[in-house]
Amino acid sequence: MTTPLHAPVDPSVDHALRLIVAGASTESTCSTELAAGPWHFDALEGYGPGSSMGDVIPTGSPRQGELPVAYREADEAELHERIRAAKRTLGDRVVVLGHFYQRDEVVQHADYVGDSFQLAGFAKKHPEAEAIVFCGVHFMAETADLLSGADQAVILPNLAAGCSMADMADIDQVEDCWEQLADVLGPLDEPDADGRVPVIPVTYMNSSAAIKGFVGRHGGIVCTSSNARTVLEWTFARGRRVLFFPDQHLGRNTAKAMGVTLDEMPLWNPRQALGGSAPADLQDARVILWHGFCSVHRRFTVTQIDQARAEHPGVRVIVHPECPMEVVDAADEAGSTDYIRKAIDAATEPTTFAIGTEINLVRRLAAQYPQHEIFCLDPVVCPCSTMYRIHPGYLAWVLEELVAGRTPNRITVSTDVADPARVALERMLAARP
Ligand code: SF4
Question: What is the mean pLDDT of residues 49-62?
Fold first, then answer.
C-alpha cells in the first residue's frame, strides 16, 4: 500500500487545457485551440494544434471525413457511456488498443495500453477479434495490420492521426538516397573481404510500412527505442555503415553511447545532393542519420533540466532518447516509455521525477504514483498534435459503426509491402544483444 504525499493529480490533459482556456489555471499551452475538438482541423491542411503544428504535412496524407454531428456535440459523459455500451455489445469481436501518449479519456477504454510494438503484440494475442481499434497514429495501425490475421480489420479512429516524424522519411526520398549512396559507395549488396556490405538500412518503428518494406528488401532491420543498441550491434556485424531513419536523435544518441564519434555520423538532408555531405564524409561514415525528428521530444531543453534541478534539489531527470543529444547528455537517464514507466515503478523511496516525454503519459504516471512527485520537464502543456487527433468522439463513432455491421477507417498494407516489412520486423525479433 502506497502513501499519497501529494494532492491527487488529474491525469487528464484535456481538463488542464480547458482550465487554461477558461483562465482558471496558471499553466500555459502552446495552442489554446487544443481545447477544441480535433474535428475542427480535419478539413484543414496541416497537423493541427500541438507540438508538430509547425511541421509540413505531406500532400496525399490520409484525410478524415466529417465526424457526424452527434459525436461532435456529445459531452464527455455521453461519449463514455456510448463507448462502454458499444464495447459490451461487441464483446470479444473487438480489441481496443491505446498508446501511452493518448489522452486519458481514450486510454480509459483501452483493453491494452503500451508503446506501439507492445500494442501490435497484444493485437496478435486476440485472433478471435474481428476488429482491432488502434488508438494511436497511422504507422502503428499499419504495424498492427502487418502482425495481425488477414481477416482481422485494423481500424484507426481518425485517419488524420499521422505522425510528423514518420512523414519525414518519404519512400521516394529514401529510394533516391539509396541510389545516391550506391554512386558513392559502389554496389550496396556486395560484401567486402570481411563479409560486410557497404551500408545496411535501419528504420525506427516510427516509420511507414513502405519504409519498413524498403528496409526488408535491402537486408535491413527495424528497431524500437528499447532495442536500438542491440539492432545497431546486429548491423555493425553485417555492414560497414548504417543508414538510420527517420529519427536522427535516436540514431545519434544510441550510436554515441556505443563509441561512434559525431564526425562519423553525417546528417542526410533529403533536400540536398548527397544529403548535404561530401563523398569523403559518406565514405568515412559509420552511421548516416536521416534528417528527421519528433516535434514532441524536440521541445525538451538543457535549460529546462537546469531549472528542474534548481527548483527541485535531488530531482531524477529521465528523458526519452528521441530528445536532442545535449538533453540526453544532461539528463540522469534516458530510455523508452517502457523504461521510464519501469524506472518510476521500481523507485522504493518517495522521489521527484522530471520526465522528458509526451505530457499525457507523464500526467498519467503522476496520477498512478502519488507517492512520488512527477512532472513534465516542459512547463508548457503541448501534447503530440497527431495523437491528439484521436478523441472519444471518434472512438464512439467507429465502435458504433462496427455494431451496425460497417467497418470504417480500415488500414491495410498491400502484400508487396507487407512481406518484406515483416522480414525486417522478424530480423529485429531475432536480433540478440
Ligand atoms: S510523439 Fe513524436 S514520434 Fe510519437 S506520434 Fe507524436 S510526432 Fe510521432
Answer: 89
